Amino acid sequence: MLRQCATRLSRPSPLRAIAIRADCFATSSARRTDRAVIYAENGNPAEVLRVKSYDPLPPPPPGSVNIRFRLSPINPSDINVVQGVYPAKPTQQHVSGEDVFIGGNEGLAEVVDVGSNVDGLHKGDWVTLGKAQFGTWASTRVISAEDVIKLPAGGFSEVNAATINVNPPTAYNMLHQFVDLKEDDWVLQNGANSAVGQAVIQIAARKGIKTINFVRSRPDLDNLICSLTQLGATHVFTYDALSDKSLAKHVKQWTSKSPIRLLLNCVSGPDTTAMTRLLGDNAHLVSYGAMSKKPLSLPTSLFIFKNLTTHGYWQHRWYQEHSRQEREKLMRTLANLKLKEPEHEILDLSGEPSDEAATKRLRDTLTKIEAGFSKKVLLRLQ
Ligand SMILES: NC(=O)c1ccc[n+]([C@@H]2O[C@H](COP(=O)([O-])OP(=O)(O)OC[C@H]3O[C@@H](n4cnc5c(N)ncnc54)[C@H](OP(=O)(O)O)[C@@H]3O)[C@@H](O)[C@H]2O)c1
Fold first, then answer.
1. How many H helices and E strands in the chain?
2. Whole-number pLDDT of residue 153
3. Which residue range or ranges hold the Enoyl reductase (ER) domain (predicted)?
4. 174 CA to middle of ligand 1, Å?
């Protein structure tokens, strides 16, 4: 299906003061202080994850800072970590008398206390994590100052800062590492409405690179096509279009001066195999996810006659292989791009009266994600 987008209080009255005191009292008695989303063993996230309160942190030891998380996303890989099927593993933590794992790999935190012998970090600084699988689904953590990356002041909105470590750098690096793309070149991608896909569209468009984007069909498809087009997508199709013979003809016409040399794949399965038929000679297929949970099968002829090259990309490996300076440079580059926030929903568990109530809401949301909820969910535990 080919679719296009159309289109503080100076002098409070006594009554007000009573209301404020009543509110404060209700808040402090209604909930414990700090909470974490934990699990004792791998399994289905909606069954094994639970919310647990813990005592306030003591002051940080030398070389460390206490941080308070403001927002932490739930990414597909976080789900895989909890399931026990992801190669990067968290280390066990002691939370209120239990040895458990804390979920979450990225998030925006604020420095709230600075230990001795720490340079360059101050109370109120916004930081993200320089350490993988640290456990970001928590109100507060103590962390070595070396394991945080200070974010450029004013560089990001709260949501963008909370989601800056994984998806935008993946999009940026995949667009720069494999093919030397110039203005008017073309990129093909699936999972185009994913957070990575949204970043790919925007980063490509800023360079005048055109994108052909594939998404799954849905009742509000027109809205999705419009929002991706507004981000800068050149064309948006559902996978159903791959069985329409006219698609290849259209693509050939559009790309006649610059046949497609980059396909970004986070889905795999037969639809991705069909997408490879749209590629030109000497193209590169970069796989960075497998949301369909199906293998990727490729015709041998593509390698022989069209000189296709295939790659895997893992941002985690990029971080392992690059210096802190390179990482900070990438953060500055991304800040300058001023990307639109990914489509998202915030799951605010801070007001829940008990750990049980917070766990129930969390599990309801995890069930929704498992069923295919399309927006990025971010956790707020404070
Ligand atoms: N390798 C790396 O370094 C790296 C880095 C970042 C992300 N990733 C991977 O990239 C992918 C996207 O991550 P994200 O955080 O951007 O995701 P996200 O915003 O949570 O979006 C998930 C995407 O997957 C699609 N999807 C889900 N199930 C699908 C299925 N059965 N068939 C086809 N599409 C399906 C969704 O489409 P609908 O809207 O139709 O449900 C949506 O486009 C994930 O696989 C993630 O693990 C890899």
1. 13, 18
2. 85
3. 43-379
4. 15
86 is catalytic: yes
Q: Compute CA distances 26 → 19, 118, 179, whole Å.
A: 11, 38, 58
For the segment 318-358, what is each residue's pLDDT rounded down to a tens digit? 999 999 999 999 999 999 999 999 999 999 999 999 999 99
What are 212's strand-pairing partners? 188, 235
Locate CATH 3.90.180.10 in the chain.
Answer: 15-162+346-380
Encoded tokens for 138: 């928590």
In this structure, CATH architecture of domain 167-317: 3-Layer(aba) Sandwich (3.40)
Tell me, using a 6 A CB cutoff, whether residue 62 lines ligand 1: no
Mean pLDDT of 212-222: 97
How many angstroms does the Cα of residue 376 sit away from the middle of ligand 1? 10
Ligand 1 contact, 319 CB (< 6 A): no
| Cβ 5 vs Cβ 229: under 8 Å | yes
